[in-house]
Amino acid sequence: MWELVKAGGWIMLPIILCSIVAAAIIAERLWTLRPSRVTPPHLLGQVWKWIKEKKLSNQQLKELRADSPLGEILAAGLANSKRGREIMKECIEEAAARVVHDLERYLNALGTIAGIAPLLGLLGTVLGMIEIFSAFMGSGMANAPQLAGGIAKALITTAAGLIVAIPALFFHRFLLRRVDELVVGMEQEAIKLVEVVQGDRDVDLDEGKA
Q: So where does this one cross the membrane (predicted)?
């Protein structure tokens, strides 16, 4: 492995750096974007139970806000529930915008890595080819085995760039899709909260869903 890195030249360093950053982002986002963490089950039912039993206090709102992204959205709506439906919905939308921004954190960087890694590899190949042909022109000698060996070394960076870019692109699309699914789920729960708090809908506490 070390021989391949050496053969690829200095351009392998940014490619390796991209691979490390991409792996860190993927691991962190897979852990952070777990559905059980972002949208805990039965949370809405529990909140409605607190409301009915008149146990919803500022301390519970604070804990709800810190518990999960969905809890942050529900807490924003509950804190302004007495100001009417429209104000409540606006506060939920503002909180949701902040939550979505947090959920999408680092995904742009991952997409950028997926885009630049193959370009770095191609750059390394082009520089390698220039170096090879320059050496042959300077010495005035060239033979097929030497040329083939030089080209093979030059292509190492392209292969390395693709090895980094393919999984980065896959997980970028996968994580964006997961964020979309989580956002849809949170929107549905927020709508249910507005409806039940404003008296338009009942909640099945056994299921924890409206």
A: 7-27, 106-130, 150-171
- Give the pair of three-digit tokens for residue 25: 């982002």
Reading the block at residue 132, the tokens are 């090879």
Inter-axis angle of helices 144-197 and 107-139, nearest 10:
170
- Look over the chain and give the mean of its residue pLDDT values, rounded to a whole number: 84
Strand partners, 209: 204
Q: Could you tell me the pTM of the whole model? A: 0.82
**165 three-state secondary structure:** helix
Among 107, 101, 106, 32, residue whose Cα is nearest residue 73: 101
Identify whether the C-beta of residue 92 lies closer than 8 Å to the C-beta of residue 77.
Answer: yes
Phi then psi for residue 209, to 5 deg, are: -130, 155
Amino acid letter, 78:
L
Query: For the chain, how long is the longest CA-to-CA vector?
Result: 91
- Phi/psi for 154 (5° steps) reads -65, -35
Beta partners for 204?
209
State pLDDT tens for residues 62-88. Answer: 888 888 999 999 888 888 777 777 888
Average pLDDT over residues 182-202: 81
Cα–Cα distance, 70 to 185 (Å, whole number): 9
Q: Tens digits of per-residue pLDDT, 131-155? A: 777 777 666 555 666 666 677 777 8
